[in-house]
């Protein structure tokens, strides 16, 4: 029997492109949390429609879903997906204030913001070269501006605005070879301990 008053612990990570959001999720997963991304829901939508999975299409489809179902749609679907798991849920890649508002209301919610210098982030993307990456610097800057909310509608990408709501902020400006030895890793663990104390 679930205690209805005890809301699920949700830790969301919001940050600029290639700043290290996925690393935060990876570290928290190693602590026993469930981890998922909003883009996994958008990716499923694209695949079901036979649309290529790339960053622009993910941004467009995310905007379309939020416009059609409201800013809370992705948060709502992820909470539903993990409602029966007793573990804390870590959501990687929160991009809209509507998602923050919904999660604040329906879970025990904490937001970790991650940022890094744009040159460092571009270097990361060149190294990573995933299905969403592989663009030149100017194109990366354009995607980054859109992601942060420049000229975006209310239902669009609003990372810049989300970062102003963060309970904790990590500035990832170091190059490291071993994650476990990094300042970044230590910061994430300290934040996690602080959240668990409050929960």
Structure explained in plain terms:
- The mean pLDDT is 88.
- 49% of the residues lie in helices and 14% in strands.
- With 199 residues, it is α/β, with parallel strands linked by helices.
- It has a single domain, classed as 3-Layer(aba) Sandwich (Rossmann fold).
- The protein is built from 9 helices and 5 strands; from the N terminus they run βαβαααβαβαααβα.
- A 5-stranded parallel sheet has the order 2-3-1-4-5.
- α2 (38-48) crosses α3.
Task: Give the topology, please.
Elements: E1 9-15, H1 21-29, E2 34-37, H2 38-48, H3 55-69, H4 73-81, E3 89-92, H5 97-106, E4 108-115, H6 118-128, H7 137-148, H8 159-163, E5 168-171, H9 183-198
Parallel strand pairs: 1-3, 1-4, 2-3, 4-5
Helix pairs in contact: 2-3, 4-5
Task: Explain briefly what this protein structure is.
By secondary structure, this protein is of the alpha/beta class. Helix content is 49%, strand content 14%.
């Amino acid at each position: 029997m679930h205690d209805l008053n005890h809301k699920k612990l949700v830790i969301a990570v919001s940050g600029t492109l290639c700043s290290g959001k996925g690393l935060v999720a990876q570290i928290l997963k190693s602590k026993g949390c469930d981890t998922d991304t909003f883009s996994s829901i958008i990716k499923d939508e694209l695949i079901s429609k036979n649309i290529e999975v790339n960053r622009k299409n993910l941004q467009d489809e995310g905007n379309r879903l939020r416009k059609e179902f409201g800013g809370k749609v992705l948060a709502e679907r992820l909470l539903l997906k993990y409602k029966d798991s007793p573990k804390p849920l870590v959501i990687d890649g929160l991009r809209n204030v509507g998602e923050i508002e919904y999660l604040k209301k329906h879970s025990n919610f904490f937001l970790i913001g991650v940022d890094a210098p744009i040159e460092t982030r571009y270097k990361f993307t060149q190294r990573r070269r995933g299905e969403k990456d592989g663009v030149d610097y100017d194109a990366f800057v354009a995607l980054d501006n859109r992601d942060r909310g420049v000229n975006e509608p209310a239902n669009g990408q609003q990372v810049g605005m989300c970062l102003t709501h963060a309970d904790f902020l990590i500035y990832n400006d170091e190059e490291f070879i071993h994650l476990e030895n990094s300042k970044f890793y230590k910061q994430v663990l300290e934040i996690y301990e602080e959240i668990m104390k409050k929960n």
